[in-house]
C-alpha cells in the first residue's frame, strides 16, 4: 500500500465545493452568455428537420460534386443518405447531422487558429500539448456532469462535449502541417519581402492545407464517435436510438442505428477526403 | 459450474459420503485449535466467489455491500460484484453468469421478468421493500404555484417550466433512455394530453438526470419530473407528488405497453422490489438462499441510509457499514443467531 499522504477525500471535497459554488453563482450568467449558441443549435436542428428530405439529399450531392467533380461519387453519397431514410432513421440522422455540423464548424474555427499559434510560438506549443492530451483521454463523463449542472441537459452540453473531444486532431495537424512547410520556401518568400501575415496566408497555410484537411477529416470522425455520449446528456438522434436499443436489449435497433452512424461517417469522410485530394492536386 | 461442486452431484449416497469425509477432515483440522477459531472457519457453500449483479443505483449498491459483508463474515464466502444494468443482469442470471440480482424492480421489467421466470432458471425470493414512482415538483414550486396539484393541470402552467430548447413549451423530465419507466412515462404523458404544451425530455442516463435535477433544485428552478424511490434524490430533496388519477390495473397494463394505442392515465402502482437468484444458486447454496429470501428493509430505514450516503458523500461500502452498525434490529432478523453473532463480531 502506498502511504496516505493526503486523504483522497480532502482533495475531492474542495473540488465538489468549487463546482457547486460555480453552479450556484455563475449558472445564470453562463446560460445567458451561451444563449446565442443554443439558438444556433436549435436553428440548425429545425432547418435540417423541416427541410424536405430530397432537398437535403440534393444539397449533399451538390457538396459531393463540388468536392470531387465526379457524378458517380456524388450520386453514391446521395444514395447512402437516402438509405438512412429508407431504414426509418431520417429524423434521427438529421438531428445528429445538425449537431455534428455545428460541432465541426466550431472545432475548425477554434482549432486552426490554435494550431497556427502552436506552430508560431514554442511556449504556446508546450502549454497546449498536455491540454490536448487531457482533452483526448479524460473520460467525457468526468467533465460532462459539471457541464450538465451548469448548462442543463441538452444540445449545449453535447456541443461542449463533442468539441472538447473532436478539436485536438485539427489543432495537431494544423500545427504539424505548418511546421512541415519547407524552410527554404519560407526563406524565399521572406527574401521577396513578404510580411509575416503574407507568409502565413500566402505560403504556410496553402502548403499545409492537405494536412489541415486530414485534421478536419479526423475531427468529423471523432465528432461522430461522440453521438452516443451526446445522447446520454439528452440529445435525440442516432445515438439516442443506440442507447435505447442497448438498454432494452434490442440488438437489432441498436445495430441499425449504429450502422446509421457509420453511414453518416462514411459520407463525411469521403467528402472531406475528396476536398483534401483536390487541394493536394492543386498544390502539386 | 455445477459439475465442479460436490454438493450438486445427483446421488444422495455420494453426497453423504463426501459430507462424511469432509466432516472428518474438518474435525481433524479443528482438533488442536480453540473452539472459537473453529467457529470462524465457516465453510462456504460455494467453491467459488458469489457473483452479485452490481446495478448502478444507490440503494442497490448499498444493499449489495450489506449482503456481501454478511455473506463474507457470516457465511465465509468470497464475493464479487459485476457492474451491469437490469436487463443484461437478468440475461446473465438466466445463463448462470450471475448468482444474484439484489434489486429487481418488478414494474420496470414486468415483461422480461415474466419471460425469464417462465424459463425456470431464475427465481424470485424475498421482497426487499415496496418502492414507488411518481411525478414530482419541488416544494418551493408547489408554494409558488399553490393551485398546481394534479399532473393533469400541468398544461395551464407550462410557462413556469419553460424548455430552453423549445421556448414555446414546458419541459417535463422523463425517464432515462431505454429504461422500462420510459415507456410508462411516455404513455402517461400522451394520456394526460401534455404533448401540446410540454416536451417529454429524456435525460439519457441516470447520472446526468440526477445532475440536472440536483442542479435545478439547488438553484431553486421550477422543475417537474419523474423519479422513483427510495433514492438519495427523493430522500434528500423536499418534494411534492403531483396527483394522478387512481390506479387501475387495466389502464396500467396498457401504459406499460410500448404499442398502447389509447393510453389512459392511472397512478403508478406500488413497485415491489425483490431479490432474484439463479436456479443453480438455490441448489448449490440453500443456507445463503434462506438468508437472502429474508432480506427486507423498511422504507424509512432505507431512506435514512440514502440520506446518510448523500450527506457524507459516502461510498456504498461505507454506507453499508453505517447501516450494519446502526440498523442491527433490521438485519439481525434475516439471520440465524450464530450467523448474526459472527457478523456482529466482524463489525
Question: Any overview of this molecule?
Answer:
The complex is a heterodimer of chains A (284) and B (347). The mean pLDDT of chain A is 88. The longest helix of chain A is centred in the C-terminal third of the chain and has 33 residues, at 251-283. Chain A has helices spanning 8-33, 35-50, 53-68, 71-86, 90-120, 122-137, 140-151, 155-179, 183-191, 196-225, 227-232, 238-247, 251-283. In chain A, helix 6 crosses helix 8 (155-179). Chain A contains 13 helices and no strands. With 284 residues, chain A is mainly alpha-helical. Chain B is α/β, with parallel strands linked by helices. Chain B is 46% helix and 19% strand. Chain B has 16 helices and ten strands. Chain B has helices at residues 12-30, 35-40, 58-75, 86-95, 110-118, 139-144, 180-191, 206-218, 232-236, 249-255, 279-284, 286-294, 299-312, 316-326, 328-331, 337-346; strands at 50-55, 79-84, 100-105, 122-138, 162-163, 166-173, 198-201, 224-229, 239-241, 271-278. In chain B, the strands form two sheets. In chain B, strands 3, 4, 5, 6, 7, 8, 9 and 10 form an eight-stranded mixed beta sheet that branches. A two-stranded parallel ribbon of chain B has the order 1-2. In chain B, helix 3 crosses helix 14 (316-326) and helix 3 crosses helix 16 (337-346). Chain B is globular and about 65 Å long.
Short description:
Chain A is an all-alpha fold. Chain A has 13 helices and no strands. Chain B is of the alpha/beta class and 347 residues long.
Can you lay out the helices and strands and say which pair or pack?
The complex is a heterodimer of chains A (284) and B (347).
Chain A: H1 8-33, H2 35-50, H3 53-68, H4 71-86, H5 90-120, H6 122-137, H7 140-151, H8 155-179, H9 183-191, H10 196-225, H11 227-232, H12 238-247, H13 251-283
Helix pairs in contact in A: 1-7, 2-5, 3-4, 3-13, 4-13, 5-6, 5-8, 5-10, 5-12, 6-8, 7-8, 8-10, 9-10, 10-13, 12-13
Chain B: H1 12-30, H2 35-40, E1 50-55, H3 58-75, E2 79-84, H4 86-95, E3 100-105, H5 110-118, E4 122-138, H6 139-144, E5 162-163, E6 166-173, H7 180-191, E7 198-201, H8 206-218, E8 224-229, H9 232-236, E9 239-241, H10 249-255, E10 271-278, H11 279-284, H12 286-294, H13 299-312, H14 316-326, H15 328-331, H16 337-346
Parallel strand pairs in B: 1-2, 6-7, 6-8
Antiparallel strand pairs in B: 3-10, 4-8, 4-9, 4-10, 5-6
